[in-house]
Design a protein that fits this description.
The complex is a heterodimer of chains A (about 110) and B (about 110).
Chain A lengths: L4 E3 L2 E5 L4 E6 L6 E7 L6 E6 L5 E4 L2 E5 L5 E6 L8 E8 L6 E3 L3 E6 L1
Chain B lengths: L3 E3 L3 E4 L5 E7 L5 E8 L3 E10 L2 E4 L6 E7 L2 E6 L8 E8 L7 E2 L3 E5 L1
Parallel strand pairs in B: 2-11
Antiparallel strand pairs in B: 1-3, 3-8, 4-5, 4-9, 5-6, 7-8, 9-10, 9-11
Classes of the chains: A mainly beta (about 110), B mainly beta (about 110).
């Protein structure tokens, strides 16, 4: 069974701090997505990475796909209260129709 | 504005009841999914449908069935609800596999 482990599970930081969330697996994925979910809502896609070593930036968020396509990281620079939410990674293996979701990282940014 | 809607935001049912959760998407997507979300477990796939009347089991299909009679609508059925089915249920759709999944707001189901 493929597993995606995220760390840390919970993170509470002050506004302006930087943070990194990790998503790790022993399996290789053909692509990996990051979603953010706010309370009472469904997850919303932030980014998709498909190439080993790929780095994508979305304003203050930087996403990296590992060279071996088994892991990914999300780095937030100068976090703001609006970044508060549940961050989920989801990986798709080649030849399958489904994404495996990570366990999630719950981030709280305090003003 | 693309949309996935779910029939209820909150639902309370009793053990043994038959429960219907409905999901509608307005994006003409081929693929639709039902997940359940539990703390510490992430999202787990219950069933997936890639076309009308076509379905495939996900990772945790036991105790659930699905129906897709029209392209835009995907229903999740709990034939006889049990307390361990208390959870948040999320529906999603996507045009192509491996592309963005659009999620509904979720239905928080409590089975007493």
């Amino acid at each position: 069974t493929q597993l995606l482990e995220q760390s840390p599970q919970f993170l509470s930081i002050q506004e302006g701090e930087n943070l990194t969330v990790y998503c790790n697996s022993s399996s290789v994925f053909s692509s990996l997505q990051w979603y953010r979910q706010e309370p009472g809502e469904g997850p919303v896609l932030l980014v998709t990475v498909v190439t080993g070593g790929e780095v994508k930036k979305l304003k203050r968020l930087t996403f990296q796909f590992g060279d071996a396509r088994k892991d990914s990281s999300l780095h937030i620079t100068a976090a703001q209260p609006g970044d508060t939410g549940l961050y989920l990674c989801a990986g798709a293996a080649s030849g399958t129709y489904k994404y495996i979701f990570g366990t999630g990282t719950r981030l709280k940014v305090l003003a | 504005d693309v949309k996935v809607t779910q029939s209820s935001r909150y639902l309370v049912k009793r053990t043994g009841e038959k429960v219907f959760l409905e999901c509608v998407q307005d994006m003409d997507h081929e693929n639709m999914f039902w997940y359940r979300q539990d703390p510490g477990l992430g999202l787990r796939l219950i069933y997936f449908s890639y076309d009308v009347k076509m379905k495939e089991k996900g990772d945790i299909p036991e105790g659930y069935s699905v129906s897709r009679e029209k392209k835009e609508r995907f229903s999740l059925i709990l034939e006889s609800a049990s307390t361990n089915q208390t959870s948040m249920y999320l529906c999603a759709s996507t045009r192509d596999l491996y592309n963005e999944q659009f999620f509904g707001p979720g239905t928080r189901l409590t089975v007493l």
